[in-house]
Amino acid sequence: MIAGLYIDGNSVLHRAQAGPKIFAMVALGTGVFMVPDWPVVSLVLASVIALYRLSGFGWRVIIAQIRPMVWLLAIFFAVQLWLNDWQAGLLVITRIAAIVMFASLITLTTKTSDMLASLERALRPLKPLGVNPEKVSLAISMVLRFIPVIATVASEIRDAQRARGLDRFILAMIVPLIIRTLKMADDVADAIEARSFD
Questions:
Q1: Cα-atom radius of gyration of the chain, to the nearest Å?
Q2: For residues 1 and 68, is the Cβ–Cβ distance under 8 A?
Q3: 69-87: string of b/e by CB count within 10 Å (b at 16+)?
Q4: What digits encode the pLDDT tens for the residues 87-129?
Q5: Taking the model in full, what pTM does it have?
Q6: pLDDT at residue 72 above 50?
Q7: Mean pLDDT over each residue of the chain, to the nearest integer
């Protein structure tokens, strides 16, 4: 099971238009950072998981979205525990988990072509100002796709570093993750340039 890839279905969320779903994702991502209490954000996360069930996804799919980011969340929690306290740690990881899980749910229930078309329509009024709707919509849709991909990469790095006995060293996790993420970004940029996307 690859996290964050479209799975065909007939749920309400599957049938909903891409525009409102993307707007909901932006609203959720903004909203959780405005909430200062981790129990409230935990309720948001629980609601997102409930949406998975309402969309017809079983626990296997849900766990597939969570598993790649478990160790990344553990690192963030450890850093916050060191710098602040356990409540700050819970607040950070529940925020990240809610955003990543909801972004994955959007990609699981929305075709990329629908996302691109919706974003382009929304950005078209800005074209006279020099905004390229096609480029912006592609960039945003790729961010949605790369959220679960980066979580998967983090899981792979964690497994590799554990085999080397380095899984307890934060830098041994963070540095390779940053390098691989930048490498993926370069590869995508090269691919777009090679196809003369404009």
A1: 18
A2: no
A3: bebbbbbbbeebeeeeeee
A4: 988 999 999 999 989 988 988 898 877 877 877 787 788 778 7
A5: 0.69
A6: yes
A7: 80
If one counts every other C-beta atom within 10 angstroms of the C-beta of residue 39, the result is 11
CA angle in degrees (0–180, nearest 5) for 144-12-14: 40
Q: Which amino acid is at 69?
A: M
Find all residues with CB under 8 Å of 88, minimum gap 6, and list them. Answer: 80, 81
Instruction: Determine the Cα–Cα distance for residues 178 and 147; give it in Å rounded to an integer.
Output: 13
Joined tokens for residue 67: 């598993």
3-state secondary structure of 107: helix
Tokens representing residue 25 in the block: 């994702």
Q: CA 5, CA 68: separation in Å to the nearest integer?
A: 14
b/e map 95-118, b = 16+ CB within 10 Å: bbbbbbbbbbbbbbbbebebbbeb
- Residue pair 108/51 in contact (Cβ under 8 Å)? The answer is no
Whether the CA torsion 63, 149, 140, 92 is positive or negative: it is: positive
Separation CA 188–CA 4 (nearest Å): 18
